[in-house]
Amino acid sequence: MNYTNSSVGSGSRTGRRAFEFGRTYVVRPKGKHQATIIWLHGLGDNGSSWSQLLESLPLPNIKWICPTAPTRPVALLGGFPCAAWFDVGELSEDCPDDFEGLDSSAAHIANLLSTEPADIKLGIGGFSMGAATALYSATCFALGKYGNGNPYPVNLMTIIGLSGWLPGARNVRNKIQGSHEAARRAASLPIFLCHGLCDEVVPHKYGERSNHALSLAGFQNLAFKSYDGLGHYTVPKEMDEVCNWLNARLGL
Fold this sequence. Notes:
Blueprint: E1 25-27, E2 35-40, H1 47-55, E3 62-66, E4 71-74, E5 80-83, H2 99-114, E6 121-127, H3 129-143, E7 158-162, H4 169-177, H5 180-188, E8 191-196, H6 204-217, E9 222-227, H7 236-250
Helix pairs in contact: 2-3, 3-5, 4-6
């Protein structure tokens, strides 16, 4: 399944090139379909590898949708083309965020969820850059709009971020606290963050800072879990806790 226009639904008005999204992999529920979760891979990966892991989880009532990011030049890699949800340079407070790329990917994800049945609970999860995109989607949901001002169309029920960070963290609090409705949505959205203390790719401090920024912005249903000895990868204990979180928060 290919989606050929990355700016569908994002309302991009610039002349920048629209990147083509890769293949989307779907893991069908083995039991009664109660929830659909988009799962987003990390930089340079694809949806296939995560779909195989997710299929093995004891969550029979969840449908997993694992899209593949567009291949685009990535500043962090010296402009080398790579599968990436958005462009990223160094991870720092001063590095500008690629909000056009983030909006494009967030819109692609929302479009995938928007075709699900009305009674199905919806969520977004991801690893590393995928986690960053999931957290950006959480802020779009709370604000009711993408960064470019176009309306965000999906009602999210949960967010999971493994080894990631929050793009645009500096401005999230002011944006959300400026709207009663945004503050209400932020307070209602369960977010589960996990991060390894030995992560050398996205250091643990970025997970801590993201958790702090989300908490200050009013995301009250927030959990942050640290793992001793864990680098930039996942382990069964972490995925077990993801399963427990989803069962509890989605009532599966």
